[in-house]
Amino acid sequence: MTKILMYSVRPDEQAAIDDWVAANHIEVDTNTVELGPKTVDLAKGYDGIVIQQHAAIPDDVVYQKLKAFGLKQLTLRITGFDIVNLEAATANGLAVTNVPAYSPRSVSELVLAQVMRLIRHLGEASAREAKDDYSWGGLEAAEIHNLTVGIIGAGKIGSAVARIFRALGSTVIVSDPVKRPELADTVSYVDLDTLLTTADIVTVHTPLDAITTHLIDADALKKMKPSAYLINAARGPIVDTGALIQALKDHVIAGAALDTIEGEAGIFGEDRSQTLVDNPELETLKAMPNVEITPHIGFYTDAAVKNMIDISLDDVKLILEGGHSPHQVN
């Protein structure tokens, strides 16, 4: 009987796993650890594996062992595949797949929530209320339909973001080398510099690679309006955290919302209330009333969790049956 092992499974994923097993009659075992050199041996005896984690897997030995165990694939039940050493995976005959669109609405709705909190100054209002200060000074808000939303990267998630803000009456501009005909009545395409200098809201929805690492750096932030807000619900290293903190301190931009941040591995998704969190930049950002921090939960809806399970396990099944997944990234 075919056997699949799923690494680092959360309790909320189990119901969807059970439903898939019942429908496909394939054995799926789970554990709660991430894949790495110390845990790769757990995959021995299985036909396929599925992972989701923040920690990178650069070590050649992991991929060599997976090949030695007879595995043909490495499936992620998340979108970001920058954690995988694609060169080592390919060299060892492993097809790497991801879930490119588990639920674009999930992330786009979080972006909307973050934007509304920022433009209505709810963080500042809450900070004042904690000190029994109920004054109005500085809390006058813009209305969303009067703002220009700039989207860097209009793939499936960026497109969903565009449609939500356009429906609310915002002007939506996009910087993306790929121009999608289906967005013709929703967005205007501009270059990155024009977007940065024009947008009241700049929201990032690109994959993480060598080009997009620190795409939003000190120079990019200086191009933004002093009244503008930055949103990152994509990948942490797309934004230079140190540069962002300095820009916020110097009032270069008005505020930011971050669902992901550099150095979040081992922090976001974990209960660290009883242990020291060694990320000074995160602590600095948390203390700012014009910054919204969420622990990488943009994806985290009931629909998205089910889709991540179903799509990833379907990919494993397809590959094991000799097929080619449309989600292969190497």
Automatic annotation (TrEMBL):
InterPro entries: D-isomer_2_OHA_DH_cat_dom (IPR006139), D-isomer_DH_CS (IPR029753), D-isomer_DH_NAD-bd (IPR006140), D-LDH-like (IPR058205), NAD(P)-bd_dom_sf (IPR036291)
Domain D-isomer specific 2-hydroxyacid dehydrogenase NAD-binding: 113-298
Segments forming domain D-isomer specific 2-hydroxyacid dehydrogenase catalytic: 4-330
GO molecular function, one term: oxidoreductase activity, acting on the CH-OH group of donors, NAD or NADP as acceptor
Signal peptide coordinates: none
Keywords from the named record: NAD, Oxidoreductase
Family of this protein: Belongs to the D-isomer specific 2-hydroxyacid dehydrogenase family.
PANTHER family named in the record: 2-HYDROXYACID DEHYDROGENASE HOMOLOG 1-RELATED (PTHR43026:SF1)
The protein's name in its UniProt record: D-2-hydroxyacid dehydrogenase
